[in-house]
Design a protein that fits this description.
Rossmann fold, 7-stranded parallel β-sheet
């Protein structure tokens, strides 16, 4: 089979967390680009809704229940994709994740740490572990891992989320290095606020959730636009996709002035605490 010029066009794709938010947006955008999509989600009804939306625009898609915390589930997902798609999987979007925030380290129940690690990190590890060898054998394709600006920003009161997303970024960089001499492209998506339901459905303290929801509503980018920018970045071979200007600003400040950045973050936290106490 001839090598495609652009990974995201005419793809045979697997998307995790495809039942809503960025995962749904990726699934629809891949379908618009002529691809077939296996839409996986822990909630099969939500995945089926995404499939119905794809079919309504003339695309081909299948819904698969998958808990990315389970390696067996992810392996079964790969087996189902191989059976359903008309060609081997050549695009994988490791998107499934949960939000955790609003407390300082030492205040989080340890269960919140485990939940974040299981979904945000192990889910991506499982996806890369299962699908990277398949793409190596195929000799082409792409893997896009959804990280976050939190992967390098390390904002206070977001410890479990920051830690897991930083690990996803490191995993993506490692995979990119390992596949650097091949035709397989690897990208880390690092957005700030995206208009999805991750805040309301996550393990986030109420005040922090309300504040984040307000910011998301006012400055958040649509999931559809994030998906388009991300897939274009993957096609261009970009390791990092930072779709919003605030993400790019934070990226530069953190690297040019790391101590000043963390000091400023601490000052901002103290000011917020005083404001909430008054």
């Amino acid at each position: 089979m001839a090598k495609k010029k652009k990974v995201s066009y005419g793809a045979y794709a697997v998307v995790t967390g495809a039942g809503s938010g960025i995962g749904r947006a990726f699934s629809l955008e891949i379908a618009r680009r002529g691809g077939q999509v296996v839409c996986s989600d822990i909630n099969p009804a939500s995945a089926a809704e995404t499939v119905a939306m794809i079919e309504a625009i003339g695309g081909k898609a299948w819904a698969v229940a998958c808990d990315v915390c389970s390696l067996d589930d992810v392996q079964a997902l790969a087996d189902t994709a191989a059976a359903k798609l008309e060609s081997p999987v050549d695009l994988v979007i490791n998107n499934a994740g949960i939000g955790v925030g609003g407390k300082q380290i030492g205040e989080y129940p340890i269960e919140d740490w485990h939940a974040a690690m299981n979904v945000n990190l192990w889910g991506v590890i499982h996806g890369c572990h299962v699908f990277a060898p398949l793409l190596r054998t195929l000799g082409r394709g792409g893997i896009l891992n959804v990280a976050s600006t939190a992967s390098f920003a390390a904002a206070p009161t977001m410890g479990p989320y920051n830690v897991t997303k930083a690990a996803v970024l490191s995993l993506t960089e490692t995979l990119s290095a390992e596949l650097g001499a091949t035709s397989i492209r690897v990208t880390a998506l690092c957005p700030t606020f995206v208009k999805t339901n991750i805040i309301k459905s996550g393990r986030i303290e109420e005040k922090a959730s309300n504040m984040a929801s307000s910011l998301m509503a006012s400055v958040g980018m649509s999931a559809d636009k994030v998906a388009r920018i991300s897939l274009d970045g993957l096609d261009r071979g970009r390791l990092y996709v930072l779709p919003q200007i605030d993400a790019r600003i934070v990226w530069r400040i953190k690297r040019w002035m790391p101590s000043s950045y963390t000091w400023g973050s601490g000052v901002a936290l103290r000011m917020l605490e005083r404001a909430n106490a008054s």
